[in-house]
Amino acid sequence: MDLRDEARKAQQTARDEILSSKSLDDLKSARTKHLGRKGVLTLLLRKLGQAAPDERKELGRLLNEAKDELLGLVDSRTDELKQATYASDLTGESLDVTLPGRKFRTGRRNLAVEMMNKIVDVFVGMGFTSVEGPEIETEYNNFDALNFPAWHPSRDDHDSFYVGEGHVLRTHTSPAQIRVMKSQPPPVRVVVPGRCHRRDTPDASHLMSFLQIEGLYVDHDVSMADLKGTLAAFAREIYGEETKVRFRPHFFPFTEPSAELDISCLVCGGKGCRLCKQSGWLEVLGCGMVHPNVYKHVGYDSLGVTGYAFGMGVERVAMLKYGIGDIRMLYDNDLRFLSQF
Ligand code: DAH
């Protein structure tokens, strides 16, 4: 076989190997094998000297063309193989950087807590100070000092969580009245937001754990008219300017006289509908003038002061405002429901 045939054959073999290489490593060894320093084509070039002088020129051209062609093929095959590697890297990748990001939900306060803060704001705007009391209360503060007689049904352990000798999970925020008055001389003007507990079976209007806000204003010459004006302003602030109020006689051990505050029905405006059970009114909270026996328990009895108190269930205030029929929905953590507000 003459050198020319040898060159053509070597070129063909090299071409086949380069084109059929499956990886960059394969390609690299094919390149070394055929075009490297000791490669087939290189050795042939070195043999040029052996060729007859008249053939040498043509053979040289042939070999150089072969080399150029093969180097070109190596380059293009390198590109192809790199592309294929990128593509398979991408398919194997679990993170698709082209997808839109997942939306991060920001949390917010529960509707009842928002309402609690709102109510506190309204009273702070009217000169009240916001204070807190403990959830574990003495039985004395929770009941006795508030003039609950020993036989009062609320003291029955069916209604309260007793926690050790003489202590109870407060059943209302009213015991804070005792703490505040014992800790300072009059005048007193506070609101007390906080969690309360009762041994109730949960239903549409009861929970074992719920929020209340207590209010207390004690000074010289505080009258029922002050109470009415303040609570009417509160009702208009929460439920709207057109809201009418009425005070209905009631009984609480720690106030005398006592009343319940009703607002004009938010659905029918007072005409009578299903929500207000045709009465035109919705019950909102309890209130009254502080009972003289309470002043005795806190040492205010000789000071000649008068005052009013009120207490409301925060969830109830929110339920009326937003037309929520079941208190449990506030705490079911159903975002489809809660995110409406
Ligand atoms: N503590 C009462 C309750 O939980 C609510 C209440 C009524 C508070 C009248 C008061 C008040 O301060 O004067 O049912």
Unreliable runs? none
Order of helices and strands: HHHHHEEHEHEEHEEEHEHH
Portion of residues in helices?
A: 40-55%
| Alpha-carbon distance between the two ends | 93 Å
Apparent shape:
rod-shaped
Strand order of the biggest β-sheet: 1-4-5-9-8-7-6
Largest sheet: 7 strands, mixed
Output mean pLDDT: 92
Describe the protein in words.
The chain folds into 2 domains: 3-92; 111-338, BirA Bifunctional Protein, domain 2. It is built from 11 helices and 9 strands. The protein starts with a helix and ends with a helix. With 341 residues, it is of the alpha+beta class. The mean pLDDT is 92. It has helices spanning 3-20, 24-35, 40-46, 53-92, 111-124, 139-142, 175-183, 224-239, 292-298, 314-322, 335-338; strands spanning 129-130, 136-138, 167-169, 188-197, 209-219, 245-252, 255-264, 281-290, 306-313. The strands form 2 sheets. The protein has a 7-stranded mixed beta sheet, sandwiched between helices. 3,4-dihydroxyphenylalanine is lined by residues 172, 174, 214, 252, 255, 286-288, 309-311.
Q: Which helices and strands occur, and which strands form pairs?
A:
Blueprint: H1 3-20, H2 24-35, H3 40-46, H4 53-92, H5 111-124, E1 129-130, E2 136-138, H6 139-142, E3 167-169, H7 175-183, E4 188-197, E5 209-219, H8 224-239, E6 245-252, E7 255-264, E8 281-290, H9 292-298, E9 306-313, H10 314-322, H11 335-338
Parallel strand pairs: 1-4
Antiparallel strand pairs: 2-3, 4-5, 5-9, 6-7, 7-8, 8-9
Helix pairs in contact: 1-2, 1-4, 2-4, 5-10, 7-9
The protein binds 3,4-dihydroxyphenylalanine.
3,4-dihydroxyphenylalanine is lined by residues 172, 174, 214, 252, 255, 286-288, 309-311.
